[in-house]
Amino acid sequence: MVQVQEPQDYLDVLQSQRGGFSFENCNRNAYLAAQADIKPPTAMKSGTTICGIQLKDTVILAADTRATEGPMVADKNCEKLHYIAKNVFCAGAGTAADLEHTTQLMESQMELLRMATGTQPRVCTVVRRLSQMLFKYQGYIGCALVLGGVDVTGPHLYQIYPHGSTDKLPFTSMGSGSLAAMAILESEYNENMSVEEGKKLVAKAIRAGIFNDLGSGGNVDVCVITKDAGGTILRNHEKPNERKFKAAYKGFPIGTTPVIKTDIMKLVTVEDDVVMKD
Q1: 3-class secondary structure, 145
Q2: What is the pTM of this model?
Q3: 80, 77, 75: which is closest to 93 by C-alpha?
Q4: Residue 52: which of 147, 178, 168 has the closest Cα?
C-alpha cells in the first residue's frame, strides 16, 4: 500500500508543487528502449542552401530547389521561397511540411492583421510572432528561416532559428550549404550594390551551395522585395544543372514479363434501365 506523506511545513508544499522538468522517467525510458530494442526518434538531416542580402531600399532572397528525403532526392524543383505578405517573404530550410504550414499560418495571421488595422504589416511583427511560436515548440518544428521585407521603416533582413532565436543582419545564409554561400557573401557583399548586382551575388552564393553541398541542388530561385512593387519571385532564375542529353525511351516488348494467369471478373450486372420521371 502506498503511503501518502503529509506536508510538515510550507517548504514541503513548495517542493510538491515545484515546476520544471522531471527526470524521474529517464532511466525507465532508457531501460525500456534497450530491452525492447527500440530506436528513439531522431531528427532527420535535411539539405538546403538559402541566403538573403539587404540593400539600400531592397531585400533580395534566394534558394536552391532540391528536396531530400534522407539520402534520396525527393524533388528536383521544389519551391523554398514562401509568401507571407505583399511586402514580406521568407526562404525556408528544414522540414518541408513544417515550413509550409508555418508560413501559411503566418500568411493568414498577417492578412487578418492587415484587414483589422488597415495598414501594411511590419517585418518585425512577423519576426516576433514566428519567434514566439517556434520557441514554444522548443525546436521540434524544423523551420530555419531567412526572412526579408520592406515596410515603412525601410528594408529588413532577419535570420530565424528553429528554437526561436533571431538575428538582424545585412546578409546571411542558412542550411547545409550555408558555409559555401557565406564565403561568397562575405567576400563580395557591398551595401551600395544595385538590384541587378545583388541578384547576381545571391545567385552566385546559391550556386556555391549547389556545387559544394550534396544536400543542395537543382535550380536557383530569387525573390526581389521593393517598397513600391512588393515581392517578385523569379522562379528558376538560373538553371546550372540543366540536362544536356536525354536518352530515347525504349519500351519493353510484349512478352518480356510472362503472364501466369488472366482472370476477368464481372462485378456488376445491369438488368433494367431506370428512367426517372417528374
Answers
A1: strand
A2: 0.77
A3: 80
A4: 147
